[in-house]
Amino acid sequence: MDFSHSPKVTALRERLLAFVDEHIAPNDHLHHAQQAAMTDRWQPVPITEALKPKAREAGLWNLFLPESGHGAGLTNLEYAPLAEIMGRYPWASEVFNCSAPDTGNMETLERYGTEEHKERWLKPLLAGEIRSCFAMTEPDVASSDATNIQTRIARDGDHYVINGRKWWSSGAGDPRCAIFIVMGKTDPDAEKHRQQSMILVPRDTPGVTIKRMLPVFGFDDAPHGHAEILFEDVRVPVGNILLGEGRGFEIAQGRLGPGRIHHCMRAIGLAERALEMMCRRSLERRPFGKPLADQGVIIDRIAQSRILIDQCRLLTLHAAWRMDTVGNKVARTEIAEIKVAAPDMACQVIDWAIQAHGAAGVTEDFELAYMYKIARTLRIVDGPDEVHKFQLGRMELNKYRAPRNARPGESV
Ligand SMILES: Cc1cc2nc3c(=O)[nH]c(=O)nc-3n(C[C@H](O)[C@H](O)[C@H](O)COP(=O)(O)OP(=O)(O)OC[C@H]3O[C@@H](n4cnc5c(N)ncnc54)[C@H](O)[C@@H]3O)c2cc1C
């Protein structure tokens, strides 16, 4: 295991850090001001759009997509330090065409799409011309168990007809969101894990209705947003199915691994920024006649934050390395570990940073409240903590069930 940066990553890192220093950090307030001033909140934010051509010109575009001819050709391990830098500012990843859920959807199309799907949807997504959403979760069933998904995808001649209600379809608020990847049941009588399929639904298909946008702790996340969507007799050609009927779980496994670890990489960047803010504020704020930074409890929290962040970074790099070397399916243990650890760590570090800022910490002036919102929802998104822990615990126990199939400390 060697986690040092390759020359290629070192060069990209330097370029990315320079770009963030020059274009992202100084425009952070402008980004929020522009967003706040927009009469229609569901339109692209001008500064984000203005920076995209610059990022492209700087060769900082589509950095994800491991082993692909489309992206920068980086492995997951190589991408991790770059995603962390982008993650420091919640709006930055989009500037580099590296934001969720488009990254996961592009990987899905790249891996499981036909040449026609790639031409029609992947190409414009890679170019940043359109955006996408992934619609799995449903309001009426416990969706952390994806076998519960009820949306019906029924074959009717040369078409599939889709009926169902989804919610928390992130990204559907953006007017450029042109394609939905929808999960639903093609065969309710098949074996449990062969009932579900994934299908491509163009947003403008008759019968697709966005019912409302869901706020998160009061934030609307515009123009990206999280939609509740109704599918009523939505007809799409049979060719829109991904990989074939009953292959939905297989695709979900392939899609969610990279998506989950990308969230963790960005969460580490977010926590690093919160720690930096905590340190700066503690050095300048002087309650009871001395800098806050001189209080033992603050020094302890700063030290603890450093330990927690570094632990999570190592776990993330290890999981990324496993994905690169043994594949996403075998690396599911390591992915599950970091999916639990990183959001929990980020919540803790951001919470301490908020506390060090006093009341200022909960205003929008310092962005910590928004950062906390992101970290907290990551404990639910892409599988709640408990589901990952349940699977991790079972895999750990399996080592000690007969027949014995692993040694303590080994992955199963
Ligand atoms: C900001 C945000 C963005 C999202 N984006 C998307 C998106 O783009 N596309 C999409 O399809 N979905 C998205 N989601 C939805 C998310 O993936 C689901 O909310 C998640 O999978 C949990 O499903 P659920 O809400 O139905 O919870 P439920 O299945 O109802 O579970 C409720 C709670 O039960 C507990 N629980 C579940 N299983 C166990 C267990 N085995 N043991 C103990 N406790 C358990 C967990 O604490 C869980 O939070 C998003 C959610 C949020 C908040």
Our measurement of the CA-to-CA distance between the termini, rounded to an integer number of angstroms, reads 19 Å
- Identify every distinct bound molecule in the structure, by name, code or SMILES: flavin-adenine dinucleotide
Give me the secondary-structure category.
alpha+beta
What is the ordering of alpha helices and beta strands? HHHHHHHEEEEEEEHHHHH
Tell me the overall shape: globular
Mean pLDDT: 94
**CATH level-3 fold name of the largest domain:** Butyryl-CoA Dehydrogenase, subunit A, domain 3
Question: What would you note in describing this structure?
Answer:
45% of the residues are buried. The protein has three domains: 7-126, Butyryl-Coa Dehydrogenase, subunit A, domain 1, CATH 1.10.540; 131-242, Butyryl-CoA Dehydrogenase, subunit A, domain 2 (Beta Barrel); 249-398, Butyryl-CoA Dehydrogenase, subunit A, domain 3, CATH 1.20.140. Helix 1 runs parallel beside helix 4. Helix content is 48%, strand content 14%. The model has no long low-confidence stretch (mean pLDDT 94). A hairpin with a 2-residue loop joins strand 2 and strand 3. The chain is built from twelve helices and seven strands. It has a four-stranded antiparallel β-sheet with strand order 2-3-7-6, with no helix packed on it. Strands 1-4-5 form a three-stranded mixed β-sheet. By secondary structure, the protein is of the alpha+beta class. Flavin-adenine dinucleotide (FAD) is lined by residues 101, 134-137, 142-144, 168-170, 216, 226, 377, 380-384, 386-387, 390.
